[in-house]
């Protein structure tokens, strides 16, 4: 069980952040994400795994408001984006501004690991856990 003061843990030998994130169990749909340079410092939108988006966000509309919520109650707003690439591949994303604000406020570094837990509701809401 995570306590409400939990924000970010340091790696412990033999118990990496990725291992801890993968071990996290939720009753809600979730996915694990490893921080990359382009999401933390670049202008790239935050990519949502396509299988996850199709399964749990399939009925949502392009441009829909999304909330990123931390355990301590802080909230960042982003837009849900559905984009079709020139290869006809459908990409599901969150606008970069909202996610980068969360990353900056939580001092995310390349290699940090997050779990995005989909809470559902009328607004797309993800609880974000940082490992």
Note down, in words, how this protein is organized.
Strands 1-6-7-3-4-5-2 form a seven-stranded mixed beta sheet. It is an alpha+beta fold and 131 residues long. The protein is globular. A hairpin with a 5-residue loop joins strand 6 (113-118) and strand 7. It has four helices and seven strands; from the N terminus they run H-E-H-E-H-E-E-E-H-E-E. Helices cover 21% and strands 31% of the residues. Mean pLDDT is 82; it is low at 1-15. The longest helix has 10 residues, at 96-105. The protein has one domain (27-130): At1g16640 B3 domain (Beta Barrel). Residues 31-131 form the TF-B3 domain. InterPro entries: B3_DNA-bd, DNA-bd_pseudobarrel_sf, REM16-like. This is B3 domain-containing transcription factor VRN1.
Labels describing this entry:
131 residues, transcription regulation, DNA-bd_pseudobarrel_sf, seven-stranded mixed β-sheet, globular, DNA-binding, transcription, B3_DNA-bd, At1g16640 B3 domain
Secondary structure: elements and pairs:
Layout: H1 17-23, E1 30-34, H2 37-40, E2 46-48, H3 50-56, E3 65-69, E4 75-84, E5 90-94, H4 96-105, E6 113-118, E7 124-130
Parallel strand pairs: 3-7
Antiparallel strand pairs: 1-6, 2-5, 3-4, 4-5, 6-7
- What's the total helix number? 4
What is the CATH class designation?
Answer: Mainly Beta
Strand proportion: 25-35%
Output the helix-strand order. HEHEHEEEHEE
Described by strand count, sense and barrel closure, the largest sheet is: 7 strands, mixed
- CATH H-level name... which superfamily? DNA-binding pseudobarrel domain
Query: Using only CA atoms, what is the Rg?
Result: 14 Å
Give the rounded overall mean pLDDT: 82
Ranges where pLDDT stays below 50 over 5 or more residues in a row are 1-15
The largest sheet has its strands arranged as 1-6-7-3-4-5-2
CATH architecture: Beta Barrel
Distance between the termini: 14 Å
Range of helix content:
10-25%
| Integer tally of domains | 1
Under CATH, the topology is which? Answer: At1g16640 B3 domain
Overall form:
globular
Strand runs, count: 7
Derived from helix and strand composition plus strand pairing, the structural class reads: alpha+beta
InterPro entries: B3_DNA-bd, DNA-bd_pseudobarrel_sf, REM16-like
Domain TF-B3: 31-131
Subcellular location: Nucleus
GO molecular function: DNA binding
């Amino acid at each position: 069980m995570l306590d409400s003061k939990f924000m970010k843990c340091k790696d412990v030998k033999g118990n990496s952040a990725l291992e801890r994130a993968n071990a996290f169990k939720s009753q809600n749909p979730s996915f694990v994400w490893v921080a990359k340079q382009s999401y933390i410092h670049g202008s790239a939108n935050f990519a949502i795994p396509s299988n996850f988006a199709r399964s749990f966000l399939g009925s949502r509309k392009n441009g829909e408001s999304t909330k990123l919520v931390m355990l301590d109650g802080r909230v960042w707003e982003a837009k849900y984006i559905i984009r079709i690439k020139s290869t006809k591949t459908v990409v599901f994303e969150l606008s970069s501004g909202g996610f980068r604000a969360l990353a900056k406020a939580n001092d995310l570094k390349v290699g940090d690991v997050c779990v995005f837990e989909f809470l559902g509701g009328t607004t797309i809401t993800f609880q974000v856990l940082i490992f």
